[in-house]
Design goal:
Length: about 525
């Protein structure tokens, strides 16, 4: 019997393929260029780019020097980018051509001297994403990534402690305020190996495993999983942008085993007609991981029907890492839960002073990271104060059941207060999500012209072809929710302002109602 040589792992994005040894060599050569540009250990380097092969090469190249890669949201405006340039004292920026004008404006606002290295956008990427082909022409105003790589044929050598130092700062998503830099203490080799090992095991990553990057690489979780997959030799397929039917095609064609998604993506998949979904074979999937945003129970049940035992969920935060995990089987026994604490992490439900609340009572979700998770401070702000020793509150509310499973009810900033009564949007969103024809929903408070403070409002995105009206929604909810929880304002909309990680920007919607609204729709 002749042994078959192991397959060389690859990176695939649309019509482009690169072997991982080639990608890692390019990353190493970029590392040499970064050092030659005077970037030191701990310096911050922004990446503003769409999902593509170069995103991972740049991330690994920066990390190989001990500098800190900071991926940022491609939807941010110049003023939002300027905040990070100033806050992190950024010295180097890698940007797709598309985002160069935003970054140039951000530098001017911030008074920053950060150097921009432009990543030329390949025509294949633009075609795959349906973007303007004119973006394939670089601006000509900055150095090009390919020129930097070409000028340094020798890759950077091993730098002791570089990987640990490269993980020093990460930014929160900023959906409820300005993004905050989470500055971690430098991790020990034991911490690095523990995080990598636990992540790989729970996420289903291993050498040769076909994995799909479906979310934006600027977001913490898809980025961390993809970089880890590259380092251990998983076969990586990158989606340039999200498309539900393309997701199904890629899973079928590449026999994908591992993918990280968000609930919004699941809902989009379910909007693909059932007869079309049935033409794709999803049986290769062993680990379909979701997180980042609440998953309504009706959507979760549909996801379990679709993915079976391959479906897993976790809850965590940038500050403390992954806190809870839950399998499909556990969820069916604890519907609505996001899981129980693992690996030495902990969850405590308390009031604003940290005093423990009884089982089933809603309060602040205080968390502690896994045993191996590093301590942190907020960049330029110091360590957060907490009345619960060793634990942190990042704005989430929820409760525990008798078995220690956590249930989230929303974020503190989103609680609607009407006539002195707290109304939790997640409960209403779950009820609306269960209505036939609903693809997505956001519930929030708006000013009441009377004396009750706030009223409940809902923006609802219907599935394609659904005949959904505000009256239908209101009649359906009237038998399920107390009357004060039924939204007084219901709008059927064509889109919701969610970021690519699934988090909805409710502030953007609420701003429409800032002056107060009366009546209903």
């Amino acid at each position: 019997m002749i042994d078959t040589p192991p397959k060389t792992p690859t990176l695939v994005c649309g019509a482009r393929t690169r072997t991982q040894p080639e990608a890692l060599l390019r990353a190493g050569r970029l590392g040499s260029a970064i050092l030659a540009a005077g970037i030191d250990r701990g310096d911050k380097c922004v990446i503003m780019a769409r999902n593509d092969l170069e995103f991972l090469e740049v991330s690994v190249g920066i990390a190989s020097t001990g500098a800190n890669p900071l991926p940022i949201n491609t939807r941010w405006t110049a003023s939002e980018v300027a905040h990070v340039l100033t806050d992190a004292q950024v010295r180097l920026i890698f940007s797709h051509t598309e985002f160069v004008p935003v970054l140039e404006a951000a530098r001017e606002l911030a008074g920053s001297q950060a150097r921009i290295v432009e990543i030329a956008m390949p025509p294949e990427l633009l075609t795959e994403g349906g973007w303007n082909l004119a973006l394939a022409e670089p601006t000509g105003r900055h150095d090009l990534l390919e020129d930097w790589i070409a000028a340094h044929p020798e890759p950077v050598g091993h730098i002791e402690g570089a990987i640990a130092q490269s993980m020093g700062v990460i930014y929160t998503s900023g959906t409820t305020g300005k993004p905050k830099g989470v500055a971690r203490e430098q991790m020990t080799p034991h911490q690095l190996l523990s995080i990598a090992g636990a992540t790989a095991e729970r996420m289903g990553l291993a050498p040769g495993v076909p994995m799909l990057v479906a979310g934006p690489l600027y977001h913490t979780s898809p980025n961390a999983v993809a970089v880890l997959g590259l380092r251990i030799g998983a076969d990586i397929v990158i989606m340039p942008k999200w498309d539900a039917q393309k997701f199904l095609q890629l899973v079928d064609h590449h026999r994908i085993q591992q993918v990280k998604i968000v609930p919004t993506m699941v809902s989009r998949i379910l909007s693909v007609p059932a007869e079309v979904r049935a033409t794709y074979d999803l049986s290769s999937l062993t680990h379909v991981i979701h997180s980042a945003a609440p998953c309504p129970p009706a959507l979760k049940r549909a996801a379990i029907d679709l993915f079976g035992d391959a479906l897993w969920e976790f809850y965590g935060c940038s500050e403390a890492g992954t806190i809870t995990w839950i399998s499909a089987a556990e969820w069916l026994d604890h519907p609505g839960s996001v899981g129980h604490a693992t690996d030495g992490s902990a969850v405590h439900i308390g009031d604003e002073h940290g005093n423990a609340l009884p089982v089933g009572e809603i309060g602040r979700v205080w968390v502690r990271g896994a045993d191996y998770w590093p301590r942190f401070e907020y960049l330029n702000q110091g360590a957060p104060h907490s009345p619960v020793e060793g634990m942190l509150w990042v704005g989430d509310l929820g409760y525990l059941d008798e078995d220690g499973f956590l249930y989230l009810t929303g974020r503190d900033a989103e609680v609607v207060i009407r006539g002195g009564v707290n109304i939790y949007p997640a409960e209403i969103e779950n009820a609306i999500a269960a209505i036939d024809g609903v693809e997505d929903v956001a519930v929030f408070g708006i000013p009441d012209t009377g004396d009750l403070g706030e009223m409940v409002a809902a923006h609802i995105l219907p599935r394609p072809g659904a005949n959904l009206t505000a009256d239908v929604v209101r009649r359906t909810l009237s038998g399920q929710l107390a009357n004060y929880k039924v939204p007084a304002r219901i709008e059927i909309v064509q889109s919701l302002p969610r970021d690519d990680s699934g988090k909805v920007y409710k502030r953007q919607i609420r701003n429409r109602y800032a002056t107060g609204i009366s009546g209903v729709q």
